[in-house]
Amino acid sequence: MSVGFGNTFAGATPLPLALGSFGMPGCFLYHDCGYGFAMPCAQTSPGQAQFSLPIPGASIFLGMRVHLQAWAPEAAANPAGIVASNALQLKVGL
C-alpha cells in the first residue's frame, strides 16, 4: 500500500502519472506517497488483503484527507512485474 496526502502533484510532477515508462503500461500513480510507499498488507483470503492505518486521536487530524493506492506483484502483467490499483481518498473524522 502507498499512502499520501495530496493527489495533484508528486513534487513538481502533475498527477495522475502514467507509469508506462517504468514498465507498467496502463497503470498510474494517483497520489504523492507523502506518508509511505510499499507498506505491507495482510492477506485475509485469496485475492484479498487488509491494511491498517493508525491515526492519532488528536483534533488536528480531523478533516485531513488521506490517499491510498494498492500495489501487488504480478510477474506476467508487465515488464515491471507490478500492478497498481485505482486510488481511494479518505477524509478523517467528521
Structure notes:
- This protein has 94 residues and is mostly beta strands.
- The chain has one domain (2-91).
- 0% of the residues lie in helices and 39% in strands.
- The protein is built from no helices and 9 strands.
- The chain has strands spanning 2-4, 9-10, 13-14, 17-18, 28-29, 42-45, 48-50, 65-73, 82-91.
- Strand 2 (9-10) and strand 3 (13-14) form a beta hairpin.
- The two termini are 24 Å apart.
- 11% of the residues are buried.
Task: Give a short overview.
With 94 residues, the chain is mainly β. Helix content is 0%, strand content 39%. It starts with a strand and ends with a strand.
Helix-strand blueprint:
Layout: E1 2-4, E2 9-10, E3 13-14, E4 17-18, E5 28-29, E6 42-45, E7 48-50, E8 65-73, E9 82-91
Antiparallel strand pairs: 1-8, 2-3, 4-5, 6-7, 8-9
Name the helix and strand elements from N-terminus to C-terminus, one letter apiece.
EEEEEEEEE
How many structural domains can be distinguished in the coordinates? 1
Strand content: 35-45%
Number of strands: 9
Shape: flat
What characterizes the major β-sheet?
A: 3 strands, antiparallel
Q: Residue-averaged pLDDT, rounded?
A: 94
> CA-to-CA gap between the ends?
24 Å
Structural class assignment:
mainly beta
Based on CA atoms alone, the radius of gyration comes out at 14 Å
Continuous helix count: 0
Unreliable residue stretches: none
Oligomer: single chain
